[in-house]
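== Folding task for one protein ==

=== Format: two labelled lines per protein ===

==== Paired sequence and C-alpha cells ====
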Amino acid sequence: MPSQPPQPSPDRMVDFHAHPIVVGVVPHQPPLVTLTAITLARAVGAPSVHFGYADQTRYVVEEHPGGDVRHAPVDPDDADEQWQVTADTITQQLHDVLDDCDLDWRFHYLAGRPDRALTHLARAVDAAGFVVGTRRGKHPMHEFLSGSVSVRLAHHQHRPVIVVPIQVVDWSDGLPWH
C-alpha cells in the first residue's frame, strides 16, 4: 500500500513570527508582490524574506542547505549565459524596490518546476509561508487548465500561500474564458 504524504496539521505549522517568508518572483514583475511580502514580513516579525525565481529551462544538479542550487540547462545546446542575464534583471528589480528596506532579504536563482523549487527553498530556510503573484495574461482559462504556481503550492505542501493579484478580470465583460 503506497504511503500518504504528510498532511497539514497544527503540529506541522511554522509560526510566522521569527521565520522567513518565501516569495516567488519573475522578471519584470510589478513591485506589488515584493512590497506585499515585505509588508507581511514586517507585520509578523519575520527575520528575512527569500525571493526565488525558478528557471524551467534548467534543472537542479545539486541542492545546497541554504536553499540555493547548482543548475544546468535542460538543452545542452542552449547558451549557458542567459540565466545570468535573467538573474541580474531580477536582482536589479528587487534592488530598485527594496533600496531602503530595513529587512534582511536574499534572491535565489532556482531551477525546475516553480512550485517544487519554491517548496525546496521554504524547507531549506524553514519559512512560515509563501507570497506569490497571479500570472499576467489574457488567457485565464489556460492558467485554470494548466494550473498556477499558487494552486500547486497550496496542494503539495503545508505552508500557507498568499496570492497577490497582479491583474484583475472585469466581470462585467462576461466570464474570463469567453
User: Anything to note?
Assistant: The longest strand covers residues 48-55. The chain has one domain: 18-73+82-167. Residues 82-97 form the longest helix (16 residues). The chain is about 30% helix and 20% strand.
